[in-house]
Structures are given as structure tokens and as C-alpha cells.
Amino acid sequence: MAVAPVSGEAAQLAELVSIELAREEGLVVVAWPVVSPLTGKPLEEIRRALKAETVVALAVRGGTMTAHLFQPDLDRKAWGGSFTWEPGQERELAVAIARGARDGIAKLRRPRPGE
């Protein structure tokens, strides 16, 4: 899994979300220094370059953070959320995003009807 900011504004939070996700047993998260140079690249390019099965994409728009868990090669979005926060609440925001991403991963791991 890789956590990728869509814009530079989301970069600091991407690192915090990566840290939170890395705490999850059995989940491999690409290290932030490896992901950082790919900021702003298309998700499929990031996934391919990092050999990541899934990508958490983060973007800041008008004071709102959006986060989406994608499986880009299959064009599947497993989870998405929109969050507002105040300065100083970045860790709480990272925890909430990581929780949502973990739920999305569980959803992706479940067999789809007809599979």
C-alpha cells in the first residue's frame, strides 16, 4: 500500500497516515521517503512504480481533506472520506483516515459476488 498526496498541501498528512497504517499487523506500507517524489503523479503510475496493490490518495480542497482508497489497476474505489480539521488536529485526522483505509482494505479482500 502507498499513501500518496495528490497535491503538495497533503504531503505532511500523507506521512502521518503512512505511520498510522504501518501500525496495522499484516499491512505493508511503502515508506514515505520513497513515495514523496511521486507527489502529483497519476495513481496508476504511483502504484506501478512502487509495486503497491492499493493507493490511498489524499487531497486538500478549500480547507477539507479528502481521502480515497483505490485499487487503480482495477479502477476500484473501496473507500472514501471527507474531513475538516483545525490546526493541531493532524494526528487525529491521520488516525481517522487510516481507520477508513483499513475498512476499505477489508472490503477489497472480501470476495465480490460471482467471484
Chart the SSEs and their pairings.
Layout: E1 2-5, H1 11-22, H2 32-35, H3 43-50, E2 55-61, E3 64-71, E4 76-84, H4 90-109
Parallel strand pairs: 1-2
Antiparallel strand pairs: 2-3, 3-4
Helix pairs in contact: 1-4
Strand order of the largest sheet: 1-2-3-4
Give the class from helix and strand content and strand pairing.
Answer: alpha+beta
- What would you call the shape? globular
CATH class: Alpha Beta
Order of helices and strands: EHHHEEEH
Query: Spans with pLDDT under 50 lasting ≥5 residues?
Result: none
Which terms summarize this structure?
4 helices, 4 strands, Rossmann fold, globular, 115 residues, 38% helix, alpha+beta
Description:
By secondary structure, the chain is an alpha+beta fold. It has a single domain, classed as 3-Layer(aba) Sandwich (Rossmann fold), CATH 3.40.50.10070. It is 38% helix and 24% strand. It has four helices and four strands. The chain has a four-stranded mixed β-sheet with strand order 1-2-3-4. A hairpin with a 2-residue loop joins β2 and β3. α1 (11-22) crosses α4 (90-109). The protein is globular and about 45 Å long.
